Amino acid sequence: LDFMRSFGFVAAGLIKYRGSHCSAVAGRLGTEMCKEPKTKLLRLYPPTSDGPTVPQETQTGDSEILSCTVKALKDGHIVAVPTDTIYGLACLAQNSEAVKKIYEVKERNGQKPLAICVGEILDIYKYCKVKVKEDLLRDLLPGPVTLVFERSEKLNTNLNPFTSLVGVRIPDHAFMRRLCQMCGEPLALTSANISSNTSTVEVHVTCAAFDKLNMAVFLLKEFQELWSKLAVVVDGGPIGDQTRQGSTVIDLSILGKYRVIRPG
């Protein structure tokens, strides 16, 4: 009886999720799925307990996943993506409506800034006024670090209009770097969770309900409450060591000084 109750509870939660193409058994999706208006689950590779075992760029079909995600971003939508630390929500930083939407989806305080994510070191100079040597940037990036600089005039004025500073990231994640390169502009990036909730490190979490004779295993979604508001969810498997810590944030906006705003 307890098993059946557990089964009914979990099954009911799964049934609520709309769109069978985003279920746990959905296969890799091709570019034709980009035409569908519902949330799309796109898998980079089969999730494993130890995270990715081969480079993302070598996986068959990843170019279609990149194309689909770029299209969603260019259309002004919000997407969920893996990084080198936790899962994130992303939109085009230069699109003011998309920036507004990402705050709404995350239920984020409008006075809390969003970081930007770029694909190359040279991109940082376009959107930030860098006061450190390029060698230092290359020592730190790509990696689990967000560097805070004074923003340049090229960055969307509606992104963090309450501050002259902006945090910039280059995740040590091949898919994310390539995504930024293909978009040709920075992404606004924040953690994939409702504000103040726990950060997320995988798209699917395995849960089991069992009694003495039977066991059922289910795949639940870590940030399921957000899925219906997203155009694309990119499943990159479990991330990192499961500590659920975001990047280390370092303020380098003042010449000759640094300040760790947040350890990661």
From TrEMBL:
Pfam assignment, any one: Sua5_yciO_yrdC
Residue intervals of the YrdC-like domain: 63-264
Catalysed conversion reaction: L-threonine + hydrogencarbonate + ATP = L-threonylcarbamoyladenylate + diphosphate + H2O
Gene Ontology CC entries for this record: mitochondrion; plasma membrane
EC number: 2.7.7.87
Family: Belongs to the SUA5 family.
Protein name according to UniProt: Threonylcarbamoyl-AMP synthase
Species: Gambusia affinis (Western mosquitofish)
